[in-house]
Design goal:
Strand order of the largest sheet: 1-2
Structural class: mainly alpha
Order of helices and strands: HHHHHHEEH
Number of strands: 2
Shape: globular
Distance between the termini: 12 Å
Strand content: under 5%
Oligomer: single chain
Largest sheet: 2 strands, antiparallel
Amino acid sequence: AAADDLREVCAMVRDNRRALYTAADEAAVAAGPINHNRVGNDLIARAEAMVQRLRLRRDPAHERWLREFEALQDDIQQNRATWQDVHVVRTQLNEAWGAANPADRRIIGAFKRELDNFREAHAPTGYRSAIENADTYSSEMSQMFGRRSRTELGPDGEFTGTNDIAGRRIEEILNTD
């Protein structure tokens, strides 16, 4: 009975988390286009400074993310980019981070931080607030249920990372009964 109650709580946590990230997706769509030039230049300046710090140009495996940032910057400067485009790149980073080895996670994590900093500095309040709500909830649930893990919501509402908070690890423990 206790195991069933815990599974129910885990399912509720996943559903709540999924709903918060869905709200963030919707807020990204509603936020509309990004103002060009200054904002776009800020994105690429952040990425290039991080690339120099980490010396990524020497590693072709990570060039993909620099190209993604450059394409996003070009779209911003041409008035073709929306906050949903930024959100899509962030989701792609989440997915890549979940499948990466520890060394690659460090680099992908650096790109994620730069994109998050850009989003925090320039995104409209509604989108920024929706992302903060989802991330805060995820962080709190990780502290309560997770074991020093880092997970993100990836495409199709699936979690990516080292451990699905309130999920696989608890199921693993419960199934050993």
